Amino acid sequence: MGQIVGIDLGTTNSVVGVVEAGRPIVIASSEGTRTTPSIVGFTKDKEIVIGDQARRQLVLNPKNTFYNLKRFIGCDWDELDESSISVPYNVKANEKGNVRVLSPFTGREYAPEELVSSIIRKLINDAETYLGDTVDSAVITVPAYFNESQRQATKDSAILAGIKVDRILNEPTAAALAYGFEKSSSNKVLVFDLGGGTFDVSLLKISNGVFDVKATCGDTQLGGNNFDSKIVDWIAEKFKKKYNIDLRRDRQALQRLTEAAEKAKCELSGLQKTKISLPFITTNNDGPLHIEEDFDRKIFESLCQDLLDRLLEPVQIAIDDSGWQAQDIDEVVLVGGSTRIPMVQQLVKTLVPNDPCQSVNPDEVVAIGAVIQSGIISGDLRDLLLNDITPLSLGLETIGGLMKVLIPRNTPIPVRQSDVFSTSESNQSSVVVQVRQGERPLASENKSLGKFRLSGIPPAPRGIPQVQVAFDIDANGLLEVSATDRTTGRKQSVTISGGSNLNEEEINSIISEAKLKASEDRKKRSVIDRKNNALTLIAQAEKRLRDASLEFGPYGAERQQRAVEIAIQDVEDFLDDDDPQELELSVSSLQEALFGLNRKFAAVKKVDNNPLQGIKNTFGSLKDELFSDDYWDDDPWDNEMNSNYRNKRYGNSRDDDPWDNDYFL
């Protein structure tokens, strides 16, 4: 039985953790960092790179390096705003209106779920390495304002990564779990979650281990990246005005601008003024052009006033929906790296008259909450209860194109609601159930989650047949809709997955391809690791030989040194061969030769502990000096293995020695 982990699947960075000894902990990545950049890329050799490796190629390989994928997951093309698609790589809509990402190196189109699954798989691999055990399932966090399509798409990504999702958890709720863990007092908490690509606000009541979510609201197309874009546009417009060149049309320049903007934003969290410096950003007829601009907090805040307004509205809506007053809130928890922006913190203070809580790490608190939820599911953590809500209203499209709400927003989940509908025309033998999600009165203005047809209704006048439609939402916020004809008992149901960018056939195809490639990748990695280990062993052997030359002279351990030298040559000969067995045998031989040389070292040290050996050591050192290469430069009796070969390898070769030249001829 494998273990369960908690994953914060972020727009900018992702984090994985586990319950250990009754406490939630964050697991460091294979690179040694506690967060993994949510970036996926492909190299010229069509190799996939994830995290820090992908981030390092952002500037030089922008068309094949993908970030901000969380904004695309589960979304249709027409749902994206301009800032979301303003990225250096190619994003398009397929024939169904779903988002697709293009990679020129692989020549393929990728659904966002497929790329996000690679990030999840890396997190799972890092966790398995740390735990020394397999990971079968996970609790994965999503923005509270994710709709059903986006939640289902996140679940699809996990399926592609080869794990089961035990719970889809809202990010603000996860943060509240982390904040309230081991707290016994009763508090009303506002969680303000501004990440790299999404924004959520939730209000919860925490009392003696019970976490009761009262209201939530947010914007899935608003985050720290929007603040970066404001700076990018400011720099690009100034540069265009000066040189008549739009840097946003150059992919590499745009990526450099984006990184510089993010750096400036972070620096202004602690400073009043910073400098944006980008040498050799582009060229014109006069030569290379550079950017050197002073940028201060006042300019930054003036650029972002519309973004602050977008942050303000969801907070006010959530407070109104909860039935609380601002002064009723006991604590404000800031989540996400973008909450470090001073003007954002000031905005929160104007809404709630309390200083924000600084006791949680905004980059890790969501992951810790996911880990706590995984501990609740596994039974490792007890006496904790989470009552979550559905973020958006759910209903049906009725006659006249109106939206009939069955489950209002902020309804506690899991929940089941049903209502009775009838036909709109006489002798109608079937009805189409069109499921919608949103807050608009007209159905067409809300998100379509899917539809199905209930057939076999007996002919009857308009309004006589009775069809009961039921909505079931599970703890993950995933919806199942059923329709039953009360006369015949005929029933039709569907689990909503219409918003996912992948159908079941595509998912199965990708899983099969991933399994095939996983086998190939393991073989390639095995070959690379074998060669890397061999090179490391060669370096160690060469160092040991240098130590032996200093310790014993050229003849003190001649047999052992010669064995090591021959073994090194054998390993080097097989490094570029395709025969792994020969390489393994040569590596084993080198290890045995090194073992013999190390035994010689140990034997000498043991003798050195004998005081009677001092005179012999003195004469031995004198002999080594008298017969060293530096003293006997013209010694014709040097043999190949003890002099030329070793000295050539370790930097003491005498290319002008006539004896050496004659010998090799």
Write the topology of this structure:
Layout: E1 3-8, E2 13-20, E3 23-26, E4 36-37, E5 40-42, E6 48-50, H1 52-56, E7 65-66, H2 82-85, E8 90-93, E9 99-103, E10 108-110, H3 112-131, E11 135-142, H4 148-160, E12 164-170, H5 171-180, E13 187-194, E14 199-207, E15 210-219, H6 224-243, H7 251-267, E16 273-284, E17 287-296, H8 297-303, H9 305-322, E18 331-335, H10 342-351, H11 365-378, E19 385-390, E20 394-398, E21 402-407, E22 411-413, E23 415-421, E24 430-437, E25 447-455, E26 467-473, E27 479-485, E28 491-495, H12 504-552, H13 558-574, H14 580-608, H15 614-626, H16 640-650, H17 658-664
Parallel strand pairs: 1-11, 11-12, 13-18, 15-19
Antiparallel strand pairs: 1-2, 2-3, 2-4, 5-6, 5-7, 8-9, 9-10, 13-14, 14-15, 16-17, 19-22, 20-21, 20-24, 23-26, 24-25, 26-27, 27-28
Give an account of the 3D structure:
- This protein has 665 residues and is α+β, with helices and mostly antiparallel strands.
- It has 3 domains: 3-223 and 307-388, Nucleotidyltransferase, domain 5 (2-Layer Sandwich), CATH 3.30.420; 392-501, Substrate Binding Domain Of DNAk, Chain A, domain 1, CATH 2.60.34; 507-628, Substrate Binding Domain Of Dnak, Chain:A, Domain 2 (Up-down Bundle), CATH 1.20.1270.
- Helix content is 40%, strand content 26%.
- It is built from 17 helices and 28 strands.
- The strands form 7 sheets. Strands 1, 2, 3, 4, 11 and 12 form a 6-stranded mixed β-sheet that branches.
- Strand 13 and strand 14 form a beta hairpin.
- Mean pLDDT is 82; it is low at 611-665.
